[in-house]
C-alpha cells in the first residue's frame, strides 16, 4: 500500500532553493565560536616547534600569571584517559599515543600543554611562560626515511604501520606474456583540508557527572562514543551538540587530541572551556590528506587490451593518523582497476609512521588509486600510439554488474556513456584541430580525460542513519536526522524527499540534526553518504508516517485507507464529494485530542526508521579539461572543464552541481598548487596561507555539466556525489598538462605541478 499511496514527486529532482541560505546569508548561522556559556574560560595549546625531540616541561611560571586558571601538561591530564583508539573503534595506530606529549614530541605542532584563562589572549601569554627543554632527535619526515630508519614514534618497534602483498591467479603469467608493460609513478603532496571554519569545541561539565560538548563535528554520535570510551564514562552521560559547520572535507570526522585536552581541562576546573583553532594550527596540526607515493604497471597485449595490473602504494600516515592506515591502502588496491576490464592484478600496499602531522580523511581519501590509474592509462595510450579516448573505450567494461579482481561487485554505473557524453560536450575531435593550430602559433593547449567509479556511502560494517519524522499540531512536519550537514544542503534535500512523500510544500518541512540527545546513533556525514543513507532513512520513515496518517484520516472520514491521497497538506478521499481533512486537524487530534483516536492507536503522529544501506553504492563520472601550459614560465591555466556525472536520481540538481564544482576546484588545487611540504628535519613549509596556495575564484573555470542517471538500488535511487570532483579532478588536469607539453616528452612524478616542477621536468627532458 505504501508504494501505491506515495505522492507524485514534486520537489525531488528540482533545483529547489537552499532552505539554509537565508540563515547563512543574513549572518544567522551559529558555529561553535558563536556560543557563550556562563562562566566560560578559554584555552590555548602549546605546540612543539620541533619534529622530534625529548622534552621536559615546567609550567610553574605560567600558572602564576594573573587571569590564568590553569596550565596542564601530560602529567596533569593523560591519566584521565584510556589508551586512545581510532574514532572507528579500532586500535590501529593509536594505542601508544597520549593526549599531550609526555617525554617526546613527534611532529611540529604536537600538543605539549594547554593553558586556560579568562580569554584566549591571556592563555596565549601563559604559554609563552611555559619552559620546555628540547633535546633534538633525528626526524623521520618522509617515506624513504621511514623505510631506512629505526622507529620514530614512542612505543613503536618499527615505522611500518601496515603491509599487504597479493598476486591473484594469472597475474604474473599475464605480465610475463605481455606485449608491452607500461609503468607510471606519482607522489602526492600533502594537502590541508582548509575549511573556512576551523576546528572548535566548548566542553561543559554539568550536573550529576554529565558532560555537554559543543563540537564542530561531522559525526556527533561517533564523537559521543569516542569521548565516553576515552574517559571511561557512560555514553548516556555525554551529550554532543554539533551546530552549523563551516566546511570540513574530512577534517572534522574524528575527535582529536586538542579536543580531548580541552575536555580534560573543563572536567578538572568544573567550568566550561572553549578552544577554537587558528589557521596556523590548522596547517600544522589539523591533519593532512593524500601524502602517498603511487606506482601502477599495466600489462598489455598486442592489440592494447589490458591484461593485468600491479598496484603499489606507500602511505605516509604521519605521527598520529585519524584511523588505521592500512584500511585506506587496502581499499585503493580493491578498487584501483575502476571501470576497466582487467582480469587479474597484483598489489603491494604499505603505510608508514613519520614525524609529520597525522593523516586525516580528505575529500575522497582513496583518490590516489584514480590518480595513478588515469595517469598510467594515458601513458599506456601514448606508448602504443593510440588516442587516449579510444584506448579507454576499448578497455572499459561493457556489461554490468562487474566483479573486480579482488571480488568487489560494481553495478548501476555508466562509464562508457559518461565518457562519450563528456567527449562530445567538450568537442574532443574539434579540439585536436584547434590544438594543432595553436602549436603553430607557439601556444601549448592540451586536453585531459579522467574516468572514475566512486564508492559512495561505504557501509561494509552496516553504517546506518536514523530519521524520525513527525507531524506537529500545526500540520507542519519536523524531521530529526542523525546525519549532519557540513555545507551540502541536507536541510533542503531531505526536506524535498519528505515533502514529496507527505504531500506538503517543502517549506513546511523543518530538518533538525546535530544533537545526540535528540535521536539515536547514526554514522554521520562523510564518504558521499548523506543522499543515500540519510535520504533512505527519511524516505522510509516518511512512508511509515504516511500510513499512520491514512489510518487516522480514514477513521475521521469514515472510509477505508485505500484510495486516500495526500496533497496540499490535506488527506483527500475519493468519490463525488471527495471528503478531506487537513494534516493540522490530524496533528491536533493525535497530539492533543487523543480521546478521539481509534481504539488502540498510539498518540502522536511520528515514525522512525534506522536505515542500513548496501555495503557500497557506486557513482561514476568522466571529466574532461582543456588547459594552456606555458613552457617558458611553467604556468598552467585551465580554460574549460566538463563533467559528465552519473549520481543516479538527483535530489536537487543545483546542489549536485555545487558539490561537483567544489570538488573540481579542490582537484585543481591538488594538481597545481596545494602542498604542505616537509624538509628533512620535519619542518613544514607553510605556517600561513601566504605559503599554502589555495585556488581562488579567478583560478576557477566555468564548469559545464552533463547529467546521466542510472538509479541506485536504494529507496530514492540516489548515489553520493560529494567527493567525485576531488577524486578525478587531479588526474584530469595532469593528463591535460601532459598532452599540452607532449612535444617536449617530459616526465612528472610529483604533485602539485608547480611552475618550478614543470620547468625542471622540461629541462630534464632536454
Notes on the protein architecture:
The protein is of the alpha+beta class. The protein has three domains: 21-25 and 460-611, Aldehyde oxidase/xanthine dehydrogenase, molybdopterin binding domain (Aldehyde Oxidoreductase, domain 4); 32-137 and 199-245 and 252-285, Aldehyde oxidase/xanthine dehydrogenase, a/b hammerhead (Aldehyde Oxidoreductase, domain 3); 289-457 and 616-765, Aldehyde Oxidoreductase, domain 4 (2-Layer Sandwich), CATH 3.30.365. The chain contains 20 helices and 30 strands. Strands 3-5-1-13-10-11-12 form a seven-stranded mixed beta sheet. Helix 11 packs parallel to helix 19 (724-740). The longest helix is centred in the last third of the chain and has 28 residues, at 530-557.
Count of separate structural domains: 3
Number of strands: 30
CATH class of the largest domain: Alpha Beta
Count of DSSP helices? Answer: 20
Radius of gyration: 28 Å
Beta fraction of the residues?
Answer: 15-25%
Q: What is the third-level CATH name, the topology of the largest domain?
A: Aldehyde Oxidoreductase, domain 4
Q: How far do the termini sit from each other? A: 72 Å
SS class: alpha+beta
Strand order of the largest sheet: 3-5-1-13-10-11-12
The whole-number mean of residue pLDDT values reads 93
The portion of residues assigned to helices is 25-40%
Question: What's the quaternary structure here?
Answer: single chain
| Shape, per Cα inertia axes | globular
> What is the H level of CATH, i.e. the homologous superfamily of the largest domain?
Aldehyde oxidase/xanthine dehydrogenase, molybdopterin binding domain
How many strands, what sense, and barrel or not for the largest sheet?
Answer: 7 strands, mixed
Give the low-pLDDT segments.
1-7
CATH architecture of the largest domain: 2-Layer Sandwich
Amino acid at each position: 500500500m505504501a508504494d501505491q499511496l506515495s505522492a507524485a514527486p514534486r520537489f525531488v529532482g528540482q533545483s529547489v532553493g537552499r532552505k539554509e541560505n537565508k540563515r547563512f546569508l543574513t549572518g544567522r548561522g551559529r558555529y561553535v565560536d558563536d556560543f557563550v556559556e556562563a562562566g566560560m574560560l578559554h584555552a590555548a595549546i602549546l605546540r612543539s616547534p620541533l619534529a622530534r625531540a625529548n622534552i621536559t616541561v615546567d609550567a610553574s611560571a605560567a600558572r602564576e600569571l594573573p587571569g590564568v586558571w590553569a596550565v596542564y601538561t601530560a602529567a596533569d591530564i593523560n591519566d584521565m584517559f584510556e589508551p586512545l583508539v581510532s574514532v572507528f573503534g579500532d586500535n590501529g595506530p593509536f594505542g601508544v599515543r597520549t593526549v599531550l606529549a609526555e617525554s617526546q614530541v613527534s611532529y611540529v605542532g604536537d600538543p605539549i600543554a594547554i593553558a586556560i584563562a579568562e580569554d584566549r589572549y591571556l592563555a596565549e601569554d601563559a604559554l609563552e611562560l611555559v619552559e620546555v627543554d628540547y633535546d633534538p632527535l633525528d626526524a623521520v619526515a618522509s617515506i624513504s626515511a621511514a623505510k631506512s630508519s629505526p622507529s620514530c614514534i614512542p612505543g613503536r618497534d618499527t615505522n611500518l604501520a601496515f603491509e599487504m602483498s597479493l598476486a591473484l591467479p594469472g597475474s604474473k603469467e599475464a605480465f610475463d606474456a605481455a606485449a608491452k608493460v607500461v609503468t607510471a609513478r606519482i607522489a602526492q603532496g600533502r594537502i590541508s583540508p582548509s575549511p573556512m571554519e576551523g576546528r572548535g569545541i566548548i566542553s561543559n561539565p554539568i550536573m550529576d557527572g554529565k558532560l555537554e560538548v559543543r563540537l564542530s563535528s561531522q559525526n556527533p554520535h561517533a564523537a559521543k562514543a569516542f569521548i565516553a570510551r576515552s574517559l571511561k564514562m557512560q555514553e548516556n552521560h555525554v551529550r554532543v551538540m554539533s551546530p552549523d559547520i563551516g566546511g570540513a572535507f574530512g577534517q572534522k570526522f574524528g575527535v582529536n587530541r586538542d579536543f580531548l585536552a580541552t575536555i580534560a581541562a573543563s572536567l578538572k576546573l568544573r567550568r566550561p572551556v572553549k578552544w577554537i583553532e587558528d589557521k596556523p594550527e590548522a596547517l600544522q596540526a589539523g591533519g593532512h590528506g593524500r601524502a602517498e607515493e603511487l606506482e601502477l604497471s599495466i600489462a598489455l597485449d598486442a592489440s592494447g587490451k589490458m591484461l593485468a595490473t600491479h598496484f603499489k602504494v606507500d602511505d605516509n600516515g604521519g605521527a598520529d593518523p585519524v584511523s588505521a592506515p592500512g584500511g585506506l591502502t587496502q581499499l585503493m588496491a580493491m578498487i584501483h582497476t575502476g571501470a576497466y576490464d582487467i582480469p587479474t592484478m597484483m598489489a603491494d600496499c604499505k603505510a608508514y609512521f613519520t614525524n609529520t602531522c597525522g593523516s586525516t580523511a580528505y575529500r575522497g581519501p582513496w583518490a590516489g588509486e584514480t590518480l595513478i590509474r588515469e595517469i598510467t592509462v594515458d601513458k599506456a595510450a601514448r606508448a602504443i600510439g593510440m588516442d587516449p579516448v579510444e584506448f579507454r573505450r576499448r578497455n572499459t567494461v561493457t556489461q554490468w554488474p562487474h566483479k573486480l579482481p579482488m571480488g568487489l561487485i560494481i553495478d548501476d554505473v555508466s562509464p562508457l556513456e559518461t565518457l562519450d557524453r563528456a567527449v562530445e560536450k567538450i568537442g574532443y575531435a574539434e579540439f585536436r584541430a584547434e590544438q594543432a593550430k595553436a602549436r603553430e602559433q607557439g601556444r601549448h593547449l592540451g586536453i585531459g580525460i579522467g574516468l572514475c567509479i566512486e564508492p559512495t556511502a561505504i557501509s561494509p560494517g552496516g553504517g546506518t542513519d536514523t530519521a524520525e519524522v513527525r507531524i506537529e499540531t500545526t500540520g507542519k512536519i519536523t524531521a530529526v536526522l542523525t546525519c549532519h550537514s557540513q555545507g551540502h544542503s541536507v536541510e533542503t534535500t531531505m526536506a524535498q524527499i519528505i515533502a514529496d512523500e507527505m504531500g506538503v510544500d517543502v517549506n513546511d518541512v523543518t530538518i533538525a540534526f546535530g544533537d545526540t540527545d535528540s535521536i539515536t546513533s547514526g554514522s554521520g556525514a562523510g564518504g558521499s553518504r548523506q543522499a543515500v543513507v540519510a535520504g533512505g532513512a527519511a524516505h522510509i520513515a516518511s512512508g511509515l508516517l504516511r500510513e499512520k496518517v491514512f489510518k487516522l484520516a480514514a477513521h475521521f472520514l469514515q472510509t477505508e485507507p485505500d484510495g486516500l491521497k495526500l496533497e496540499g497538506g490535506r488527506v483527500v478521499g475519493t468519490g463525488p464529494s471527495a471528503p478531506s481533512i487537513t494534516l493540522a486537524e490530524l496533528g491536533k487530534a493525535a497530539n492533543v485530542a487523543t480521546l478521539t483516536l481509534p481504539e488502540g492507536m498510539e498518540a502522536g503522529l511520528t515514525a522512525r526508521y534506522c536505515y542500513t544501506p548496501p555495503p557500497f553504492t557506486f557513482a561514476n563520472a568522466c571529466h574532461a579539461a582543456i588547459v594552456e601550459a606555458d613552457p617558458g614560465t611553467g604556468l598552467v591555466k585551465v580554460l574549460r572543464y566538463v563533467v559528465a556525472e552519473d549520481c543516479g536520481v538527483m535530489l536537487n540538481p543545483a546542489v549536485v552541481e555545487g558539490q561537483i564544482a567544489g570538488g573540481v576546484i579542490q582537484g585543481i588545487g591538488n594538481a597545481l598548487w596545494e602542498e604542505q611540504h616537509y624538509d628533512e628535519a620535519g619542518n613544514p613549509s607553510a605556517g600561513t596561507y601566504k605559503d599554502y596556495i589555495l585556488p581562488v575564484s579567478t583560478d576557477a573555470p566555468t564548469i559545464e555539466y552533463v547529467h546521466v542517471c542510472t538509479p541506485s538500488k536504494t529507496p530514492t535511487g540516489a548515489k553520493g556525489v560529494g567527493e567525485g570532483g576531488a577524486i578525478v579532478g587531479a588526474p584530469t588536469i595532469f593528463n591535460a598538462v601532459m598532452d599540452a607539453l607532449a612535444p617536449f616528452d617530459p616526465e612528472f612524478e610529483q604533485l602539485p605541478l608547480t611552475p618550478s616542477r614543470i620547468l625542471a621536468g622540461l629541462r630534464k627532458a632536454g
